[in-house]
């Protein structure tokens, strides 16, 4: 694998200008997903039943970290996607997973005749499939983030894939999973291509993330026409019990 570089590469911007995919959660929550955003200062988050991701600005200052603590609540674990800066000393890094970000570079996107659109009524089955296959975070309202497609056999949901982060002009493919009893039939590939087709139909570009250790998945994605854009990291940091000025990190009240 090699990181895309030089003029004309997928997702390229002028030298020195941050790309929208460098902070995809923030770009989503201040862009197409702004209607879902819960905010405090410059910090954004998804509702806790939609997605666990919170987003800091590109160069967070002490005020931003205080706002993040207030949004999350004292002592709460905060997942951050793609954050590469310094974590304040009063925050604890509880885990870090090295990852990769891949972008469409000639994916043969195509609709699939067996794929059906999934909606709120399908969420119990989607949650059950996710619990058995563990593709990543999927919550009761995650389906609101975009289009989810599934394949059924005998009425049962056996495979799915859908859309998650939505920076302007881009859409992330996520929650790709197949029931273990039906693996090896190419269902994940078909669904990835079908979701990518829908993204392309809107005039947007598909991208996705994977654990750097999941070399099998990365090989699959590259064989489909995705190319590595950058290496990244997924980490969780634990908010301090009190802010640096001694005030309690009081969580922001949630609707309902």
Description:
The protein is built from five helices and eleven strands; from the N terminus they run αβββαβββαβββαβαβ. Strand 9, helix 4 and strand 10 form a beta-alpha-beta unit. The N and C termini lie far apart (47 Å). Strands 4-11-5-10-9-8-7-6 form an eight-stranded mixed sheet, sandwiched between helices. A three-stranded antiparallel sheet has the order 1-2-3. The chain is an alpha+beta fold and 256 residues long. Keywords: Acyltransferase, Transferase. Pfam families: FR47 (PF08445). This is GNAT family N-acetyltransferase.
In short:
With 256 residues, the chain is an alpha+beta fold.
**Tally of alpha and pi helices:** 5
Number of strands: 11
What order do the strands of the largest sheet run in, or round the barrel if closed?
4-11-5-10-9-8-7-6
- Rg, Å, rounded: 19 Å
Helix % is 10-25%
Shape: globular
- Structural class by secondary-structure content: alpha+beta
Largest sheet properties: 8 strands, mixed
The arrangement of helices and strands along the chain is HEEEHEEEHEEEHEHE
């Amino acid at each position: 694998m090699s990181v895309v570089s030089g003029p004309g590469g997928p997702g390229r911007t002028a030298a020195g200008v941050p790309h929208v995919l460098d902070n995809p959660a923030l770009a989503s929550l201040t862009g197409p997903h702004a209607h879902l955003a819960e905010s405090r200062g410059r910090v954004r988050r998804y509702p806790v039943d939609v997605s666990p991701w919170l987003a800091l600005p590109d160069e967070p200052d002490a005020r931003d970290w205080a706002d993040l603590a207030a949004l999350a609540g004292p002592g709460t674990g905060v997942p951050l996607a793609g954050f590469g800066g310094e974590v304040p000393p009063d925050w604890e890094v509880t885990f870090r997973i090295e990852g990769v970000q891949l972008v469409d570079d000639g994916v043969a996107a195509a609709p699939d005749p067996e794929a059906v659109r999934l909606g709120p009524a399908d969420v119990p089955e989607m949650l059950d499939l996710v619990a058995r296959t563990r593709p990543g975070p999927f919550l009761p309202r995650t389906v609101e983030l975009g289009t989810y497609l599934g394949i059924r056999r005998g009425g049962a949901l056996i495979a799915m894939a859908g859309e998650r982060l939505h920076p302007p002009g881009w859409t992330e493919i996520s929650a790709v999973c197949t029931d273990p009893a039906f693996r090896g039939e190419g269902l994940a590939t078909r669904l990835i291509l079908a979701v990518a087709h829908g993204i392309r139909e809107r005039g947007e570009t598909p991208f996705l993330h994977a654990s750097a250790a999941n070399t099998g998945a990365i090989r699959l994605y590259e064989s489909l026409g995705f190319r590595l854009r950058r290496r990244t990291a997924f980490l969780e940091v634990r908010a301090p019990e009190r802010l640096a000025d001694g005030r309690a990190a009081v969580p922001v009240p949630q609707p309902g």
